[in-house]
Amino acid sequence: MSQQTDEQQIRALIAKWMELSRTGDLDARMNLLADDVVFLTPGRPPMRRDDFVAASKSMEGKVRIDGQADVKEVTVHGDFATCWTWLEVSVIPLSGGDTMKRAGNVLSVFRRGTDGQWRIWRDANLLAAV
Q1: Distance CA 24, CA 16 (A)
Q2: What is the pLDDT at residue 100?
Q3: The dihedral formed by the CA atoms of 88, 107, 8 and 110, expressed in degrees to the nearest 10
Q4: How far is CA 107 from CA 25, 117, 121, in A?
Q5: Residue numbers of the domain that contains 11
Q6: C-alpha closest to that of 40 among 99, 104, 91
Q7: CA gap 7, 28 in Å, rounded
Q8: How far is CA 128 from CA 100, 105, 106, 111, 125, in A?
Q9: Each residue of 23-59: pLDDT tens digit?
Q10: 1 in any annotated domain
């Protein structure tokens, strides 16, 4: 069996992230993030790892997340890689009510760890209501 290329590993990481978002497995998603990850979103201050954990825990048992990620481009530069993705996300309230839908471009930077695994290091999320 051949090893995956760096691009294939990054595409697989994105697919895994989407799967884990659907199942709500926060611990497994944390393994896909660098310790010093930063999320950038419109109109909000940068979100660090602890902020992401707190926001995720505040939604546990209240919503289900579903979505599709269409990876447009992956470029690898040594131990860093950039990825442009078109992302569509639905946040579905478990108690009923309107589903919140967002879509837009995401520009992510991945860093290869000392263990050889790629992790999300920076993520600029330009999702808007649809």
Answers
A1: 12
A2: 97
A3: -130
A4: 23, 19, 11
A5: 6-129
A6: 104
A7: 21
A8: 10, 9, 11, 27, 9
A9: 999 999 999 999 999 999 999 999 999 999 999 999 9
A10: no
Please check the confidence at residue 1 and state whether its pLDDT lies above 70.
no
Task: Indicate the pTM of the whole model.
Answer: 0.94
The separation between CA 100 and the C-alpha centre of its own chain, rounded to angstroms, equals 17
Number of domains in the chain: 1
What CATH number does residue 122 fall under?
A: 3.10.450.50
| 59 belongs to a structural domain | yes
pLDDT at residue 2 is higher than 70: no
Find where tokens 């926060």 sit: 26
Q: What is the pLDDT of residues 65-118, one digit of tens each?
A: 999 999 999 999 999 999 999 999 999 999 999 999 999 999 999 999 999 999
Tokens 């919503």 — which residue?
63
Q: What percent of the chain has pLDDT over 90?
A: 97
- For residue 48 the two structure tokens come to 């660090």
